[in-house]
Write a structure and sequence with these properties.
heterodimer; A: mainly alpha; 57% helix; B: seven-stranded mixed β-sheet; six-stranded parallel β-sheet; 27 helices
Chain lengths: 95, 752
């Protein structure tokens, strides 16, 4: 289910059809994905699952499936971010 | 004769009773099996109905739920299948029991009792499921050991509760096939020679046979040695080492039933995949399945998945086909040196140097500040050096740096945010752009850190051979071979190619195991190493690291070392490296495979006077044939093969020196004869005519052997002499040598 949700998020970001996103859909500049879209995707995932995705790990997400695995791992470790709500999140970034 | 008739009647009655019991159990097991089949079918049916609609989309985007549902139906099915497998195994065992339920009987009287009890011994036990009365004892059970160890008279066996003593007054052996008692005879000594001789005169079978009926006393001692952690066997060619090893595995597993020693806890290291196939039959015959049989290279592949390297067979092939003699010597010395304990010591010193000298640890900056100082990182890295592997310490260091980065992240984001606010000439959302900048710079940062926290072992190993001064500094006090300069140069060259030599792959494996954790084989409790003379000290160092909790059975023959001269110190070396508390070295010098004549002929190729006895069995003396022309040579070989077939020999081996030679010979003979090439990984049942290189024939046997190309070009060095020894000792019944041109100097005096 995480896979479907993330797929939907990404489809919305790049303006594609849900159907066109598969676990193998690449997230690299070489495959024509803009870096800003990846940044967007990361922010949206953090918001959706209340987790923190570390910037140093982002370059390891070669395709959607890598990100799904990462998110799943964080969730199963119960490592939800200390920033549980959107307000807290925004407070963290902008205050 | 009246007594014999009476006894025969009784034995037949007993057999009938046993068979009816076994048949009853069989039909019961069949019922169970059918029931479980029905329930498997219905479970499959349910699964199909419930999940069929989702199958096409299982791996597509929407498949996740379907996959979950699918596995929900699949799990109980897996359980049922496992159950079914157990029943199927029982069925198989019972079917075999009905075919031939037992092969021996001893009448034994316990010291404190008055009557002799009949103990029947078979491949598998047969027990009454309700009364637990034992009708047939498994050959591995403690009480059965008396059959192998004692003649008529006082006897004892080691039971779990201690030694049980008593008296044997009858030892009887049976030949039962297809549920019919063919004959029986009584013997008051250990396994009668006649019986053994009959078994040995049979042809070689496509796969190795069990020898449960004919295990000899000294063999039995090795099979049942449970007190030593390291059991080593020096066994002459044809002495049955491998057979003993496999029976020992079966015995250990039987012993281990209580201690939960399952098949997965045993691993057998065999010399090549061909051999693996050859022995594959024995353990299931003995009632044991799924023992892992691997070749040493499998271990290296697993540890170095991205490195291409040579196998031992390829290395040997290169060695014996090398046209340049000085290069051949360097290749040989390179292997000897790199796999020696001296070089292991050098590698140890190198490993010590890696964190001190060869890691490019740098200062780490984040948010314009120095967050990790090079010197401090280095000293942190050296903490707990003895107890924690380098890779784990590096990961820890990386985590420490990243923790600091995470702490400073908020501050950094603020700074980036201010920067983005000040520069508005971009089309992006502010938060997203800030995050993008952060991701980009953190990616650069992590790559900077990983330059020293992720190791490239091959690159490190190259350092050793690209800097001679450094190499000699590390090697201080360690004996080096004369041609060390040439070895270093050759290695330097090889390491820049894309196909590593065998010995360097071993060194890399060793380094890898000293840097990274490897838990793949933690559960292995028993390791069996066959053809130990093919292994060097480094191999055993690697085994020791891979199987830290294992006990070892090691079998070898110093006379069959191909590329070097070995003596009994091989075993001292092994026991020193594996440093097990209790070790024992057994010698098996009775050859059961070949006829007297073949054995005597083969002895001329061993240095010194070998102490190898034959199990007297007579045959034709080997002969050496010369052909004047190529055509005559081919005809000679063809004629000999045809003759062997006429004599009823089913497995015939044409043994050549190298793989190249086998290819050449195959092309010459393929139109004249039905021959097969025993290509390195090819399938083969040995009931056929094969062309095979010597080093691959190792451990195998053929009814008749033709050694080809025994001319002066092919066989002239002292290493070639060993190849001839190995080739000769492959033959059971018939051996002949063929050449064209000038005879090999190694055979000269033999010809007259």
């Amino acid at each position: 289910m995480i896979y479907e949700e993330i797929g939907e998020i990404f489809a919305a970001i790049i303006g594609a059809d849900n159907q066109d996103i598969t676990p193998e859909t690449e997230l690299t500049a070489a495959s024509g994905v803009e870096m800003i879209s990846v940044a967007k995707l990361i922010i949206e995932c953090e918001k959706a699952y209340h987790i923190t995705i570390f910037d140093e790990d982002v370059h390891t997400f070669k395709c959607i499936d890598d990100l799904v695995t990462y998110v799943n791992r964080l969730l199963s470790e119960g490592a939800s971010s200390s920033l549980a709500t959107d307000q807290e999140r925004e407070a963290w970034y902008y205050t | 004769m009246g007594i014999y008739q009476d006894e025969l009647y009784l034995e037949n009655e007993h057999l009938k009773r046993i068979l009816s019991i076994a048949e009853e159990q069989l039909s019961e097991a069949r019922r169970d099996s059918q029931e479980s089949e029905v329930s498997i079918l219905s479970a499959k049916e349910v699964m199909r109905e419930e999940t069929a609609h989702s199958l096409p989309s299982l791996y597509s985007a929407q498949g996740f739920y379907d996959l979950a549902a699918f596995s929900q139906y699949a799990a109980p099915l897996t359980d049922k299948l496992k159950e079914h497998e157990t029943v199927a195994n029982k069925l198989l065992t019972l079917e075999k029991t009905i075919y031939s339920p037992y092969f021996a009987r001893i009448d034994f009287k316990f010291d404190d009792e008055d009557i002799f009890e009949k103990v029947y011994i078979g491949h598998a036990s047969l027990m009454d499921s309700k009364s637990y009365e034992i009708y047939i004892y498994d050959w591995r059970s403690p009480i059965a050991s008396m059959f192998y160890r004692f003649g008529v008279g006082k006897a004892f066996y080691e039971a779990p509760a201690g030694r049980i003593t008593g008296e044997v007054n009858l030892k009887r052996q049976y030949e039962i096939s297809n549920g019919k008692l063919e004959y029986y005879f009584d013997a008051d000594v250990q396994i009668v020679d006649e019986f053994l001789r009959r078994m040995l005169s049979l042809n070689a079978s496509p796969t190795m046979k069990t020898i449960v009926e004919t295990i000899q006393k000294d063999q039995d001692i090795i099979i049942r040695d449970a007190s030593n952690d390291l059991v080593m066997v020096q066994g002459a060619a044809g002495s049955g080492k491998t057979s003993i090893a496999l029976h020992r595995v079966a015995y250990l597993m039987y012993q281990g039933l209580a201690a939960k020693l399952s098949a997965n806890n045993i691993v057998i290291l065999s010399p090549n995949t061909l051999f693996k196939k050859y022995i594959s039959n024995v353990l299931p015959e003995l009632g044991e399945r799924n023992v892992d049989s691997i070749i040493f290279e499998d271990v290296c592949y697993k540890i170095l998945p991205h490195v291409h390297f040579q196998t031992r067979n390829q290395w040997i092939e290169n060695l014996i086909t090398c046209p340049d003699q000085s290069l051949e010597i360097i290749m040989r010395r390179s292997m000897e040196f790199k796999a020696s304990q001296g070089f292991t010591q050098i590698l140890g010193r190198f490993l010590h140097d890696i964190p001190r000298k060869w890691l490019k640890i740098s200062d780490i900056y984040y948010n314009g500040k120095l967050i990790a100082n090079r010197q401090q990182l280095k000293s942190k890295l050296l903490v707990n050096e003895k107890s924690i592997l380098l890779d784990q310490r590096l990961k820890k260091i990386e985590q420490i740096i990243l923790n600091t980065v995470h702490e400073l992240r908020k501050e950094r984001i603020k700074k980036l945010d201010a920067f983005v606010l000040a520069h508005t000439n971009h089309p992006f959302d502010r938060e997203e752009f800030v995050r993008l900048l952060s991701i980009i710079e953190t990616t650069v940062l992590i790559k900077e850190i990983r330059k020293f926290t992720c190791l490239d072992i091959l690159a490190l190993y190259r350092i050793l051979f690209s800097n001679k001064d450094y190499f000699y500094r590390l090697a201080k006090g360690i004996a080096l071979p004369d041609c060390i300069e040439a070895i270093i140069d050759l290695t330097h060259e090889n390491l820049n190619g894309d196909h590593l030599p065998y010995e360097d792959a071993l060194c890399l494996t060793y380094l890898h195991l000293n840097i990274y954790n490897c838990n793949d084989y933690q559960l292995i409790k028993q390791v069996v190493v066959d053809e130990a003379q093919d292994y060097y000290p480094l191999h055993f160092e690697i085994l020791k690291m891979l199987f830290p909790k294992a006990r070892y059975t090691i079998l070898g023959d110093i006379n069959q070392a191909i590329e070097r001269q070995e003596d009994l110190s091989l075993y001292d070396g092994i026991s020193k490296i594996l440093c097990q508390n209790n070790s024992a070295l057994y010698t098996m010098n009775k050859s059961f495979r070949s006829t007297n004549e073949i054995l005597a002929f083969s002895h001329q190729f061993i240095l010194g006077s070998p102490d190898i006895k034959s199990f007297s069995r007579e045959g034709e003396a080997p002969a050496i044939y010369q052909a004047a022309t190529a055509l005559e040579y081919e005809e000679m070989l063809t004629r000999e093969v045809v003759k062997c077939r006429r004599l009823g020999y089913q497995s015939i081996g044409l043994i050549c020196k190298s793989d190249q030679d086998t290819l050449y010979l195959f092309e010459r003979l393929m139109d004249k004869l039905d021959v097969k090439l025993a290509a390195s990984e090819g399938a083969m049942g040995l009931r056929n005519t094969f062309i095979i290189p010597v080093y691959m024939a190792k451990g195998l046997e053929f009814d008749a052997v033709l050694i080809c190309d025994t001319d002066e070009k092919h066989y002239h060095t002292k290493e070639d002499k060993k190849l001839l020894y190995i080739a000769c000792t492959r033959a059971l019944h018939r051996l002949n040598l063929f050449y064209e041109g000038t005879i090999s100097p190694l055979l000269k005096d033999k010809e007259e």
